[in-house]
Fold this sequence. Notes:
2 copies of one chain form a homodimer.
Chain A: E1 3-5, H1 11-16, H2 25-33, E2 36-40, E3 45-47, E4 55-61, E5 64-70, E6 73-80, E7 84-86, H3 88-93, E8 100-103, E9 107-113, H4 114-123, H5 125-151, H6 154-168, E10 174-176, H7 181-187, H8 192-201, E11 207-210, E12 213-216, H9 219-226, H10 230-233
Antiparallel strand pairs in A: 1-2, 2-9, 3-8, 4-7, 4-9, 5-6, 5-8, 10-12, 11-12
Helix pairs in contact in A: 2-4, 4-5, 6-9, 7-8
Chain A binds a DNA duplex through residues 153-155, 180-182, 190-197, 200, 211.
Amino acid sequence: xxxxxxxxxxYPDIRELHLFSEMADEPFMTLMRGAYVxxxxxxxxxxxxxxxxxxxxxxxxxxxxxxxxxxxxETSMATAWPVSTFILxxxxxxxxxxxxARTLEKSRIALVPSQDxxxxxxxxxxxxxxxxxxxxxxxxxxxxxxxxxxxxxxxERLANHLLQxxxxxxxxxxxxxxxxxxxxxxxxxxTPENLSRAFKALHPYGVEIDGSHVRIADLGELKxxxxxxxxxxxxxx
Amino acid sequence: xxxxxxxxxxYPDIRELHLFSEMADEPFMTLMRGAYVxxxxxxxxxxxxxxxxxxxxxxxxxxxxxxxxxxxxETSMATAWPVSTFILxxxxxxxxxxxxARTLEKSRIALVPSQDxxxxxxxxxxxxxxxxxxxxxxxxxxxxxxxxxxxxxxxERLANHLLQxxxxxxxxxxxxxxxxxxxxxxxxxxTPENLSRAFKALHPYGVEIDGSHVRIADLGELKxxxxxxxxxxxxxx
DNA sequence: CCGTTTTCTTGATCTGGATCAAGTCATCGG
DNA sequence: CCGATGACTTGATCCAGATCAAGAAAACGG
Lengths: 237, 237
């Protein structure tokens, strides 16, 4: 786990993030100069809920599980993929993290001091606008997740998740699950045992599963069951 | 249902909202001059999910239920009380509403054109900062709600809700429920029948209920059961 | 390559909460 | 004041999904 200033070779990837793409060069450089990059092995806890938010985190490679615990129980809330940020809201409000984060695999994470983020927000209008847009996006994502949870059964959630993955994989009828099943279960708010059964229960709707490989024999049939709704399932709006 | 330009007597209330308190006078007046105020009877649908977001809404008096539907089911997502705004995220992103809204009682609602909000955001730094802060706050509220849903049983959710209400009522041991039980049930993600039984199930922990009046005989006992957690239950952080 | 560990599956059982069905109570317009 | 409508409660039943238990299949470290 080596900590070092950010190598300039990482700048372009970060610059492309829509959070940083619309700002002027100089404030961007200010942010980058104060930032660090660290390489983490799998399953390392990066932040713990309740801690104060000293850094905005950016996943450069690998992936990060955002999860929460209460009274001995634990649930996956979301996953951060490259290249994206996480815990922006805590950074902005200078408030404690509401979620913990751990690497799922070997990951490179950039750390930008929260103070710098707040300072540059005031100095650069493009950055300010991008932060607002990103926050609004995050908010809408959680609302969608909440609707998914409150309005659907676990089988319906799985069916819609598969449709999302299918679309994400380029509208082909075969693809691999993005993460291990026990995590998928937690994300969907169910147990691993039940996920196993849910896959079987989707068989009549043309879903075939082999390990982490999914084949959707009849997309129309699955859609008829899942009833996908852009106001819940479309991540872009 | 009368539509008219906003009377100046409403300005001070709105000005006090932290969304508008830190901005300069002139852009504030710009927003107000473009705004409308309407009086609505109870149970009127103000906005429908999926519609485009033409106005930022501000509850001046009364209260508003934010709810969502899918496949014939419906759930309450949140309640907007005076004086606060709702659907800020949709306004900012110029994206369709993710939730519908209906008045719970006779209500006065101010409508600020979304275009104006976006324009003034670019012109006034104080307003920009306030919007970011408000959005981050909203985001964190939903995350808390999601943790509540995924990590707790309905009985635990009710117990913690009562503790929140108790605190909100000024730390007294008797208070009235803020809304009718069928809505409370929906907010807590349960059925009215089950809410009824849940109140009874909390009796051993010192909860007594009479109509909408609640008496908490033993706060310590209830807390021992509910295990409130600031990272889920504290609305301010 | 093998033994260990972990994930995944499958079956049996249990339970929290939903649904269905009635009845009671409160509110309110006439 | 009455009748009607909708809210709330209570009991009986049902079901989705959790839990428990055990085996099968992968993943992994040496």
